[in-house]
Amino acid sequence: MTDPYLYNGQSPDDHVAACPDCGAAIALVEADQAATPPPQLREAVLSGARRRRTPAVPQVATLAVPYATQVALMDELLADLNGEQWNAPVPKHGTIRDLVTHLTANDTPVARLMGLTPTPPHLAPPPESTAPTALAPPPESTPTALAPPVESTTPILSPTDVAPPPGSTAPGPSPADLSRAPGATSAPRPPITLGPTSDAAPTSDPRPSSDAVPTSDTGPTSTAEPTSAPGAAHPQQAVVGGRAGGVPLHRRWREQAGLMLERVSGCADVLLDVELELAGTRPTRGPLRHALVQRTFETWTHADDIRAATGRDLAAPPADHVRMIAELGLALLPRALKGPRRDVSATIMLTGPGGGTWTIPLSPTPDRVSVVISADAVTFCRLLANRLQPETFPYAAEGDTHLAHDLVRAAATLGCD
Hints:
Helix content: 25-40%
Strand order of the largest sheet: 3-9-8-10-11
Number of domains: 3
Largest sheet: 5 strands, mixed
Structural class: alpha+beta
Number of helices: 13
Strand content: 5-15%
Mean pLDDT: 74
Shape: elongated
């Protein structure tokens, strides 16, 4: 507080001396040791949170919390960009500004399902696309029903059921979890609101600014090539706080994502089975549970795109995010295979954080396991995002090496823009 009008012309010291609230706050900040909170504080805070918003059910929180985490990481990253970096070139999309516009449009189907406002036309990318970057189902060209992959320890995230195992719980996010990315050093901004679970502290309720929260009527094919050439000025370019170029785009994306999370976290688990248009290069429908995994995956993928474009280190997602992404990719993999069906299964062994072992039936009646493929789990997720070419993807295969080759190539086609 350095401007006199903030405290009626008083000096800061005079104001603190005359204001009990400010004096108490400064005393807390300057205390050598943190005071122990009263024992009833936790329950009082949780009770207030429950009265304000129903706690998120575990099945919903299991999908919403990973997305909230990736949104927080992207939020921190975008806030750290300067004006020049917003114009940095990004493969497939033009500039970082174009990439954020694209991500906002790809969030549109979920936002529209949650009842949010359509995107202004000038923010919607054109409906053409040539290169995938995150999970999307293949076109519905093979109607044959397939059984879901069988995993050695946990159920697969199948096209019909991704609820957690019986008795499992999902931790509710705290304000710090949702407003700041792990390891971030910049000052926090308003947190993402996600309904707490029964033992979670409440989060703040973000209020939309005067700018409309964007969504789009372009559907999944709005996952598109850039709307402007690298380095070109965007119609929403502005200067806020000395940083130019991407502030309105950042705010629109962040507000939309926050409102999506707020509404999703307050819904019943039955809504997870409601179908909507999924992001992808071709029109495809799927349940909301798949769309939320897509949002988690694509947000992480594009955050890594921005890190690469600005000379930052890439960041692997947490293990539970990796596992969720890999499971959805493996569930979609059989339909992405080209050529005649084979009455066999394939076993995929993913190592490292988030890894596991899955057996994927490639037909309704497989008679044997034809190939075993092993690879790093995070690297496999980057293959699914088309950030690695099949020729450079490191893996080992035992058995039918030709089938292994086909599976790797098919995995690289499961992108959503």
